[in-house]
Specification:
The complex is a heterodimer of chains A (603) and B (672). Chain A has 20 helices and four strands. Chain A has a two-stranded antiparallel sheet. A two-stranded antiparallel ribbon of chain A has the order 3-4. In chain B, β18, α17 and β19 form a beta-alpha-beta unit. Classes of the chains: A mainly alpha (603), B alpha+beta (672).
Chain lengths: 603, 672
């Protein structure tokens, strides 16, 4: 943990604080149908044409049920569109590499994974997806799913702010405005910046380069039909193959990276994701990418404060997130700089920390920081392989996801996820001041507690249920690359990542095996659905309920929701109600692995 | 009233409660409490495993099993204790309703003797001196003095008469003189007492809104930990560790919120019970909870904020007159005045060395009574005449002149909200008596406490705004409504509610009934009319309007206790986790030993200690659940800070100490 790391951490937090207010104020205008922005002269006409085209009356608001139903309908249609497009990409244009059609369960998994802002990838982008698939099937979802997250957050905030109201906004208006005013303009500038940093943006076929040093590798011998040839004992016959050329990926990369970060999507253009030089070429691009992950979630807390006319509450929520973020970063950074004691026993210089699975360009600190940010937010882009982290270093990303992706969190989803915990914190501790708990003048009653409980319950059920199931089955066991607690971590991480709509992988897991076993693809897809809609639907019901309530007058007897005390309370609730659930299982995974490592056992 | 608070250790309550703890094991009744139901199922599973001979260490398994049963029994015991205390209250209430007979008036005018419990609503009974009133009702003819000490504990008899606001009578009270006709207003089993008895006995107890919400949260936590245990079992199998079912059950029971789950209903019953101890009958648990939410109190001036009547508090002599001379003249002028004001003048005069005089001592004196025309009263004796009265009346009496200083005094007194009475002897004006509403002692303090916790007090009075403002200032209320007519109460109550406030108020008259019904907490005075009692959701047997303040405190205390124990219960999990999880793993993975931060002796003793702590903490917290967390008049932020420190931080730390101690004890006596 060196000085340069500390300085970079401070720089990052300061930059984040600086963009929070201006972007928050901008969001305040974007998320109001009558809001005014400096882009109005250009975009307002496009906006109005869009409404006319999709036949939407922008002034007409929806109740929570209609709002949610519109969102579900839109998601379903776009998911089906993506599924079909992937299945038939071989017949469609912009496929210079002649990628074949995506197999059914992978297309199913990918369609839902991208619809839910998870961007879990059971494939390598550069060897699976055509340019059209990347641009149309995947990037569109990056925009839509991010916009949906922000829209839901805005609707929930409206529910909190309004009283005696039946409506919480219009989904279509929110969707259009967020895309037109927020995501598209920023992404256009952002993509140009990334191109300037060296990221490709073209439709050229992949380049082929002659490698300096030819390699010989062993590959299975294949018959004419392409099936592996087996000997008498049934073992696959291996033959030598000389490798003297290398394909270098090309395509519309920069445009995809911009929204992948800004929209906390995280689905990489390439398998190596942000560790690939074409996705993250320079230290500056690395910093800006990390900043763009937290930008909207952080600004949304300011928007929240502005909407509730209690900016202190907004900053209190921000502070809670910031503390959890910095704490996670420090643990991860310390674990990674400490390195692996067993490697050090072998006489290897320990000062470098654990560099396995990391880009030398980024080093320990920037890998640890990126890993913490990408898992705090439900982004899932990675610039280092979490699977290769030390047990405690890997514990941090896993734990971050299991907190519920609320440490800044996904765009929108971080805020509404945090609001669930706020409601629970207010309910539990609110009784302690001797009144029926209330939040911004709304009494928290059994219906509200029920909805908050359902959301948290579904998340725990999906993560623990699917992981436990996979751990016991042959298909589950077959997917893991390592033994012992580390292998279990890979399973646990996969379901946590998908349920949390994160999408990053503890890369050791083979979710899409060569024998085409669909179990992982299907179960992980369901995990993404539960993690997305299993939280959105109850949280929207909660918002609808809060919006309908009458206002209770506030006074000295009202439960305070600002300041350090509330931060402590909120962190306590998140850890005790949210995270404690996962501790028993975590003990058998990274925690056990850590103790075994200290005693000389690795996996 | 006969109802007294019972000691926590009263054996007459504890012994039956132990029996009830076992009766409450019935899973059908326990299913209402999901947390304890899961605990019971867990206990049953471990019992089954022992009987079936599964698992190795018999002694260990047996102890786990027994402590799981104890956990359920202790929770049942807490509820049974609360109910027992309620029943004891109910018994005391019932004692006031000894079997009586009633003289029922038949349609033809004749009287028949029937048992009191056969009286129906609408029956008319005749009650004479020294008879018990057979049921709740309303006097429709006559007037009588009634001894209500059985209900209120107040020994002075009260007058009950037909018409007006003093017509309601309560069953079980005794007529001391005269004869009255009473119309019975409730059927047997439906009187206030009956309703209250069933409420404290738990027979009709329904969960309050907050209790329902809390139960949902506790059930969700239980379900989450259930799935956590199942996944732990699965992960164990995948890691080649076979966790015994009994240990998983033990961990589950320790992690689910058994402490609050076990004490929740006891807290609710105890809240109602505490109200009864204050002689307040609540019609539902819901109203007790609402009392905690109240943030505006509408208080009648007379009776609540001030003593019933104005009193003389000072003499302001005219120039050239001593205070003593004025006091002497004022006393003489008031000797025959039997009004409370007059008596208070006599009493005040004594402070100036004027000896007590009786009318009978001075036969030569003639009393001049107050009339609406003269607007003064006094005496004539030995050729001199003493008068006291309104300033202009006395000025006329004294020949139209009044010293300037006295005029000034009169104006000053009026503008301070008090009432001036001027005293004259023959043609000489001697000075002014200051008559004031006397604000009850300690009220300003109490209102200050309320301000601290965010409750606003509004005084309602028929006085003019000047007087109202002066009294409001002295009493320390936040606001007042002057020249209020009875119907203004309802309007004010509605206005406050529209602004989002929850309103509590008291009332006794029939014209208070709409406002009592409108208020979130309406406390009717027991001396009030039947209509008022029907409209309110609480009845104060002592008919002391100041009681409203205590009712609010009890409501808040109830909610605080519930929140504090929930926080405590959830915070406890951290230590139990550190006790049990390492113990479960250390057999297969000895490397995990450093996680055993409490240095517990052995895996068995660690698990057992956590389970024992989890069970004993329920017993240890029963007194707190029954008595309630002490209520402090602080702002919400301060209360939160305090309780979060005690029950949140304390809830994290205490079990570490407790489990360690239990571990030391059970390893010392070789139980594990």
């Amino acid at each position: 943990m060196n000085q340069s790391g500390w300085l970079q951490l401070i720089l990052y937090v300061v930059l984040l604080v600086l963009i929070t207010k201006p972007l928050g104020l901008y969001l305040y205008q974007v998320l109001d149908v009558n809001g005014r922005t400096f882009l109005d002269p250009v975009i307002r006409p496009i906006e109005n044409i869009t409404y006319r085209f999709i036949r939407i009356d922008a002034r007409k608001e929806q109740g929570w049920i209609l709002y949610t139903a519109s969102m579900l309908l839109f998601s379903a249609v776009t998911a089906i569109f993506t599924y079909v497009l992937l299945r038939y990409q071989n017949l469609l244009p912009l496929n210079p590499q002649n990628m074949p059609a995506v197999v059914d369960h992978l297309a199913f998994n990918t369609a839902f994974s991208f619809t839910t802002n998870t961007n879990w990838q059971s494939y390598s982008g550069e060897s699976t997806m055509s340019y059209l698939s990347q641009m149309l099937a995947l990037v569109c979802h990056n925009f839509f799913s991010a916009a949906i997250g922000i829209a839901i957050a805005a609707a929930v905030v409206r529910g909190i702010v309004r009283h005696s109201s039946q409506t919480i906004g219009n989904f279509w208006v929110d969707l259009v405005r967020i895309n037109l005013y927020l995501l598209l303009p920023i992404c256009i500038i952002y993509a140009v910046f990334l191109v300037a940093q060296g990221i490709p943006q073209n439709f050229k076929p992949y380049d082929t380069a002659k490698v300096v040093e030819a390699q010989t590798v062993q590959v299975p011998k294949k018959d004419d039909a392409g099936n592996p040839v087996k000997d008498a004992k049934g073992n696959v016959i291996m033959v030598d193959q000389k490798v003297d050329t290398q394909s270098i990926v090309q395509g519309p990369i920069a445009s995809q990276i911009a929204i992948k970060m800004l929209g906390t999507n995280g689905g990489g253009y390439t398998n190596a994701n942000a560790a690939h030089p074409f996705e993250n070429p320079t230290p500056l691009s690395n910093l800006i990418q990390m900043l763009s992950i937290f930008a909207i979630p952080s600004a949304l807390t300011y928007y929240f404060g502005r909407m509730t006319k209690n900016q202190k509450h907004g900053w209190t929520v921000w502070g809670t997130m910031a503390i959890l973020f910095v704490a996670g970063t420090l643990v991860c950074w310390a674990a990674e700089s400490g390195g692996n004691p067993m490697v050090q026993h072998l006489g290897v210089d320990a000062s470098g920390g654990n560099m396995e699975g990391k880009e030398v360009r980024f080093g320990i600190f920037n890998s640890a920081l990126f890993a913490t940010i990408t898992t705090d937010a439900s982004c899932g882009a990675v610039n280092a392989m979490h699977d290769s982290f030390t047990p405690l270093g890997g514990f941090v990303p896993l734990f971050n996801i299991q907190l519920g992706e609320i440490v800044f969190g996904g765009v929108g989803s971080g805020l509404y996820g945090m609001i669930l915990f706020i409601v629970l914190a207010v309910f539990i501790a609110g009784l302690m001041v001797g009144r029926t708990p209330e939040y911004f003048g709304k009494k928290i009653e059994s219906y509200d507690v029920k909805m908050a409980s359902i959301a948290i319950l579904l998340m725990a059920f999906s993560i623990l249920g699917f992981s436990g199931w996979a751990a016991l089955t042959p298909w589950g066991q077959a997917g893991v690359n390592n033994n012992g607690p580390h292998g279990l971590s890979e399973i646990f991480y996969a379901y946590s990542s998908c349920t949390g709509n994160n999408g990053s992988a503890f890369a050791g897991l083979t979710a899409n095996p060569s024998n085409n076993d669909p179990h992982y693809d299907i179960t992980l897809a369901f995990a993404t659905l539960i993690g997305r809609y299993g939280i959105i639907i109850p949280v929207m019901a909660l918002a609808g309920s809060l919006g309908r309530k009458k206002l209770v007058a506030t006074g000295a007897g009202t439960f305070p929701v600002t300041g350090p005390l509330f931060i402590i309370l909120l962190i306590g609730t998140i850890l005790l109600v949210g995270a404690l659930t996962f501790l028993p299982a975590l003990t058998l995974t990274p925690i056990l692995e850590h103790f075994l490592m200290l005693n000389g056992k690795l996996f | 009233m006969a109802v007294k608070s019972h000691s926590i250790f009263d054996p007459t309550i504890i012994v039956p409660a132990i029996g009830d703890s076992f009766r409450k094991l019935n899973p059908i009744s326990l299913a209402k409490n999901p947390v304890m139901f899961v605990t019971e199922v867990g206990a049953a599973i471990t019992t089954f495993l022992i009987i079936a001979g599964h698992g190795g260490n018999f002694g260990f398994q047996l102890q786990i099993c027994l402590w799981l049963w104890f956990t359920v029994l202790f929770a049942n015991f807490a509820e049974a204790m609360a109910e027992g205390r309620g029943k004891a209250q109910a018994k005391a209430l019932r004692a006031t309703r000894t079997q009586t007979f009633a003289n029922r008036l038949k349609a033809d005018g004749t009287v028949e003797k029937v048992a009191a419990n056969h009286l129906r609503k609408g029956d008319i009974v005749v009650v004479s001196a020294n008879e018990l009133i057979p049921g709740d009702g309303e006097v429709i003819e006559g007037a009588a003095t009634v001894d209500e000490s059985a209900i209120t504990g107040e020994s002075a008899p009260v007058i009950r008469e037909s018409g007006g606001d003093r017509s309601a009578v309560t069953g079980g009270t005794k007529v001391l003189s005269d004869q009255v006709k009473i119309e019975i207003t409730s059927n047997p089993g439906e009187t206030f007492l009956d309703r209250m008895i069933s409420l404290v006995e738990g027979a009709t107890r329904q969960k309050t809104p907050n209790e329902i919400a809390l139960t949902i949260l506790l059930s969700a936590l239980t379900l989450i930990f259930l799935i956590a245990m199942m996944s732990l079992k699965a992960f164990g199998i995948a890691s080649s560790v076979d966790f015994p079912i009994s240990v998983l059950v033990a961990l589950l029971v320790c992690l689910i919120p058994t402490t609050i789950g076990g004490l929740l209903s006891a807290i609710g019953i105890a809240g109602i019970d505490r109200l009864v101890q204050k002689n307040v009958l609540a019609m539902s648990g819901r109203s007790v909870e609402a009392a905690g939410d109240v943030d505006v109190l509408l208080l009648d001036k007379t009776g609540t904020i001030t003593m019933g009547n104005r009193q003389a508090t000072d003499f302001l002599p005219a120039p050239g007159v001593t205070k003593q001379q004025l006091a002497d003249a004022a006393q003489l002028a008031s000797l025959a005045d039997e009004t409370p004001e007059g008596r208070s003048i006599v009493v005040l005069a004594k402070n100036y060395g004027i000896r007590a005089r009786e009318l009978g001592d001075m036969p030569e004196m003639t009393f001049v009574p107050f009339t609406a025309q003269t607007r003064m009263s006094g005496v004539d004796m030995n050729g001199s005449s003493y008068r006291k009265g309104a300033a202009d009346a006395i000025r006329k009496f004294a020949g139209g002149k009044m010293p300037e200083a006295v005029e000034k005094d009169v104006k000053a007194v009026s503008s301070s909200g008090a009432t001036p009475l001027v005293v004259a002897s023959k043609q000489t004006i001697l000075g002014t008596i200051l008559l004031k509403d006397i604000v009850k002692g300690g009220l300003a303090d109490r209102f200050e406490r309320f301000r601290a916790i965010g409750i606003r007090t509004v005084m309602i009075t028929g006085d003019n705004p000047l007087t109202a403002a002066a009294i409001a200032k002295e009493a320390g209320v936040d606001d007042y409504l002057a020249e209020a007519k009875p119907e203004d109460k309802l309007a004010l109550c509605r206005k406050e509610q529209q602004a989002g406030h929850l309103v509590a108020m008291t009332g006794d008259g029939t014209n208070d009934a709409p406002a009592l019904a409108q208020a979130d907490v309406g406390v009717a005075m027991n001396t009030g009319t039947q209509a008022a009692k029907e409209a309110g959701n609480m009845v104060d047997l002592d008919s002391n309007p100041t009681k409203l303040i205590e009712i609010v405190e009890i409501g808040k205390q109830l909610l605080i206790t519930r929140g504090a124990l929930t926080t405590f219960s959830i915070a406890n999990d951290v230590a139990k986790y550190f006790a049990i999880i390492p113990a479960m793993l250390v057999g297969v993975f000895p490397q995990i030993a450093p996680l055993n931060v409490m240095f517990l002796k052995s895996p068995e003793s660690a698990i057992l200690s956590a389970v024992i702590f989890n069970a004993l903490i329920i017993i240890a917290l029963i007194p707190l659940a029954l008595k309630g967390v002490r209520f402090r008049p602080l702002g919400a932020a301060r209360i939160l800070q305090r309780n979060l420190l005690i029950y949140g931080a304390g809830g994290i730390v205490l079990p570490f100490i407790g489990i360690k101690l239990i571990d030391m004890i059970i390893s010392a006596v070789h139980l594990a």
